[in-house]
Predict the structure.
Amino acid sequence: MSNTILKAPCVRLSKLEELYIEMTAQNCNLSCKYCYIDFKDKKVKDYIPIEKIKQNLSMLNKEQLNYIHLTGAEPMLHPDFNHILRLCLKYSSVVIHTNALNINDKKARFLRKVEEENNLGNEIIFMISIDHYIEKENDALRGRGSFRKAVHAMQSLIKYDFNPIMAIVNHNNTDESELKENFRQLCSSFDFETSDINFKIVPLLDKNLIREISPDTDFERLNIECTNSRTLTINGVFLCPLLSTDNRGKCGSDMNDYSKKGYIETSFCSQCIAHNNYMFSFKNNQF
Ligand code: SF4
């Protein structure tokens, strides 16, 4: 019998350039069929307290930080969302990962004001989830009315001079240029002129699928979130948003006390490595 112990590959954080803050793990106002989050109780009050965010932000090296991302489930449902946004803008530009159900004309105007109030030049960037350029196809995946609301939110945002990014899950493994072209045409129909920076296309993840990881993989050079970010949640610090409820992804209690090493051992890791492009960040989109 072999005594060999198979060790999970280790990835090191090189620089903390991006911080994800999970505003809530369970609260969402949509029920997308394929969501990677394991919803147990959508009504649970699991919002991360603003005080916890404040304390953790004060532990960071501001100079290194490029972006703070607000994620969820649905981050805009946090009751202190506006205060948290203003707080984060004191540290860096802020990316809001949202289904956009809470964005209308009035909210977009307000958010423009919030961005202008901060005199550090930090921006608010929107990543709007939308999965298909045809209403019926999108709504079959994300719920009735979700397409119209996402389009309406984008129209409101561009009216107030924001430049939203569409976060698109590529359900059918469609050729990316074809997918972008179809979305480009959709956007042109409401006078939103897009370029490649406006599209973030990610594969559909399956938490039961394990892909083989090549032994020649140079983990430090991969474009994966755990090499340049950490995720702050109500329960501590995690390697990335995909693992924010998985104990294998936990790497510390706060931003003063977390590990720079991470072990790549989940089914999400194997798919993320095969993709080799950030799942959440637009770092590879050229601004
Ligand atoms: S899912 Fe990807 S980013 Fe997250 S820990 Fe695994 S390899 Fe790293």
In short: The mean pLDDT is 94. The pocket of iron/sulfur cluster is lined by residues 224-226, 239-240, 242-243, 249, 262, 264, 266, 268-269, 272-273 (CB under 6 Å). Residues 59 and 256 are 6 Å apart (CA to CA). The domain at 14-31+40-275 is CATH 3.20.20.70 (TIM Barrel).
